[in-house]
Amino acid sequence: MLTYKIDNEIYLSLPRPEIDSTALFKLINDSRNEMIPWLPWVLKVKSIADERETLKRNAQSLDTIGSLNLVIWYKNEIVGSISLKNWDKNIKKLKLVIG
Fold this sequence. Notes:
With 99 residues, the protein is of the alpha+beta class. It is 34% helix and 32% strand.
């Protein structure tokens, strides 16, 4: 698993759809009402299978739409995800979306 260590407790990793989808779906489902005003895409994620397919689709998005999606880990537990959007290799800028 490719990871980026932030500190001794926090690191980021590329999503593993078959493994990480269950934990990420639970986080989405548990916070759905709070997330909807800010992240309306949660309405489309209704099952673990939906989340798994989203992770698979997002894994291909760096090349197609310039988005890098990562899983956030805290004390070896998945606590969320982060998307680096509008990745432009030429100007080295991006937009940060935390979800």
